[in-house]
Amino acid sequence: MTLTQLEYLLAVDTYRHFATAAEKCFVTQPTLSMQLQKLEEELGVQVFDRSRVPVRPTELGKDVIAQARVAVAEFKKIEELVKVQRDGISGELRIGIIPTLAPYLVPLFITDFIKKYPQVRITIQELVTNTIVEKLKLELLDVGLLVTPLHDKTIVEVPLFYEAFVGYLHPSHPLSSLKEITAEAIDPAELWLLNDGHCFRSQVLQLCNRAKDTRNVHLDYESGSLETLKRIVETQSGMTLLPELSVQELPADKTAMVRPFAEPQPLREVSLVVHRSFLKRKTIEALRDEIVTHLPQGLRERHPVRVVKIK
User: Fold this and answer.
1) Is the Cβ–Cβ distance between 193 and 239 less than 8 Å?
2) Of 61, 96, 153, 294, most Cβ neighbours within 10 A?
3) Under a CB-based contact definition with an 8 Å cutoff, are residues 187 and 302 in contact?
4) Structural contact between residues 252 and 229, judged by C-beta atoms closer than 8 angstroms
5) How many C-beta neighbours within 10 Å does residue 181 have?
């Protein structure tokens, strides 16, 4: 059994296609297939069911692959220790971030991070939570920035800050006359929501104690963008709920449409998330420190009193 064979094994599991796995490993398909066959013969088990398309691991193969990921990660940590000592913080950092966070958080820290660590090449993808978690497990991402807790034992969560929910109300909305709002006072028929698949939608429904089939009675429009929801409220009617960072830079006329919740304010926990056997430890620690340093003071100092969970 060799490290190369284990890496080929993981590539096939990740891409579920021998030709694609061989391409990603920079070898020919016959070479990759031959090495995997040798590995299976040595172990005396069939790791992949080749009769299915796409190829799938067998039940025993799933356990073999899980242990192979641990073994390969531990070996790479040795290389990483030497590399950091020799070159400092450098290399590629692949970040996944949820869409309700990306446009408001990334601009706060990314410029200074790049200036401070010019040898780091950053790739950022906006993805929903489930996709980020899956890509972390397959080592297609190094770190995720998303809302927790996830209750996944294969994932390590490092809370960064607690962000308040706020209401964004059309001036004609009945609640716009109040200085603060409560979840109980929100009419579901007046509430604009994100599409299914966004954790923020799930939290809003849970916060308002509403059924999943909540709809606006005048227009059925669900968006994948918080900015679109803002525009609908501004030009139509009703209200939406937004995360605090998304209203930080609003002009004065739009700020007047924002209403905080009464204390204790509902919060969402924003965390840096990695796989339990994650690599690039020093680079990810540097990312964490840079994010926290650039947060508005109120978010850095807030304590979690009422965190809205994700269903």
Assistant:
1) no
2) 96
3) no
4) no
5) 21
Q: What does the alpha-carbon distance between residue 219 and residue 198 come to, in Å, rounded to a whole number?
A: 20
What tokens does 283 get? 């680079």
DSSP 308: P
CA 296 to chain centre: 21
Bridge partner list, 163: 268
Instruction: Tell me the CATH architecture of domain 88-161+267-301.
Output: 3-Layer(aba) Sandwich (3.40)
Report pLDDT for 311.
67
Token pair for 53: 């398309």
For 56, other C-beta atoms within 10 Å of its C-beta total 15
Q: In whole angstroms, what is the distance from residue 63 CA to residue 163 CA? A: 38
Options 1.10.150.170, 2.60.120.620, 3.40.190.10, 3.30.420.10; which CATH number does 162-260 get?
A: 3.40.190.10
CATH architecture of structural domain 3-84: Orthogonal Bundle (1.10)
Helix, strand, coil fractions of the chain, as percent rounded to 5: 45, 20, 35
Residue pLDDT, tens place only, 142-198? 999 999 999 898 899 999 999 999 999 999 999 999 999 999 998 888 888 887 777
Question: What is the arithmetic mean of pLDDT over 62-90?
Answer: 81
C-alpha triplet 122, 124, 128: angle, nearest 5°: 155
Give CATH 3.40.190.10 domain extents, the chain.
88-161+267-301, 162-260
Closest CA to 278 of 118, 155, 121, 149: 155
Is 143 in contact with 120 (CB distance < 8 Å)? no
Distance CA 176, CA 145 (A): 33
For residue 203, the SS3 value is helix
**What is the structure's pLDDT at 21?**
92
> Boundaries of CATH 1.10.10.10 in the chain?
3-84
